[in-house]
Amino acid sequence: RVSGIWICCAVKGRVMADSADIIEDEDVDDEGLPKRLVAAVLDAVGSANVAALDALLNPLHPADIADLLEQIDQRDRATLLFLWRDGIDGEILSELGDDLRSEVIDLLGPAELAEAVRDLESDDVVDLVEDLGLDQQGQVLDALEAGNRVAVEKALAYPDESAGRLMQMEVVRAPSHWTVGQTIDFLRASDDLPEQFYHVILVDPRMKPVGYVTLGRLLGTPRLIHLTELMEDSFRTFRVDQDEEEVAYAFNQYHLISAPVVDEDDRLVGVITIDDAMIVLDDEHDEDILRLAGVDAESSLTDKVIATTKRRFPWLAVNLVTAIFASLIISLFEDTIA
């Protein structure tokens, strides 16, 4: 029995060492992944080696795992998800393209899906479900706790590509009359703070934001100073129905890190952070480049043939018409060419 345990530990250690060598390989492909990684993952999938998959995939960033899932075919992807279903989390789902995300959600069971989306913030869940079909939206919403589900459904009620869809509802706020000491004590006593935030938003008694204070100034100021003395000049708000392109432009133009979102009564309902704004800018840039090339901005390598054909048909039809027209012109000069 001792010998068997020693052999198992030795084999597992060798697998982890080999996996570390592959992950640290400096020779990468166009997706930024080590070139040997995809082949190693496919070998592990073919041999149903869950330990090897854990060693290969656990150290990777969710975006890299999403890229890897896009590079393998549908059958290998289904087998990988069956073997490694406990490893798929909400961040990986958020990084996938719409069609591939829909496929992966179908392959996950209700328990795995609930575990995957449990720790996501509201804006990430909205981004995850807004392009899914009604059945799959229901699957994800059913996996959420009651409070989170209400927040996501409220966000989905806002117009597409609006600030309301972009914002997260987990907001750190404090009354504008508080001091630095009161605010720090409140933050330390809170057990439901967002994992990442940059400002404490100051609100008046009617829940209208009047300014914000950066965490750096908050922590570097004596306790008796009032928060209103530390407010940033860059403060601005966005309406829930404001176009997300306008929001992203303002973030880029005025070097914002985060900004509160208000409803029609100017009451605080959420906050937009720079990472979400930069994603919008990147998407708009990509769409412009793809349109210049005559390619649908919604296209992806993982799209099904029928979906790709529908999206590209208008452009292909134009090309076909122009090609026929060119051939007719050439036929008029057939004798000259001969």
Structural write-up:
Helix content is 58%, strand content 8%. It is built from 18 helices and 6 strands. Strand 5 (258-262) and strand 6 form a beta hairpin.
Provide a quick synopsis of the model.
This protein has 18 helices and 6 strands. By secondary structure, it is mainly alpha-helical. The strands form 2 sheets. A 3-stranded mixed beta sheet has the order 1-2-3. Strands 4-5-6 form a 3-stranded mixed beta sheet.
Strand content: 5-15%
Largest sheet: 3 strands, mixed
Q: Which radius of gyration do the C-alpha atoms yield?
A: 26 Å
Multimer state: single chain
SSE sequence, one letter per element: HHHHHHHHHHHHEHEEHEHEEHHH
* Low-confidence region ranges: 5-12
Strand order of the largest sheet: 1-2-3
Shape: globular
- Let me know the average pLDDT: 83
User: Tally of extended strands?
Assistant: 6
The termini sit apart by 87 Å
- Helical content band: 55-70%
Layout of helices and strands, plus pairs?
Elements: H1 2-23, H2 35-46, H3 50-57, H4 62-71, H5 74-83, H6 90-95, H7 98-107, H8 110-117, H9 122-129, H10 134-142, H11 146-156, H12 163-166, E1 173-175, H13 180-189, E2 199-203, E3 209-214, H14 215-219, E4 238-239, H15 244-254, E5 258-262, E6 268-273, H16 274-292, H17 305-332, H18 334-337
Parallel strand pairs: 1-2, 4-5
Antiparallel strand pairs: 2-3, 5-6
Helix pairs in contact: 1-3, 2-3, 9-11, 15-16
Features:
single chain; 338 residues; mainly alpha; 3-stranded mixed beta sheet; 18 helices; 6 strands
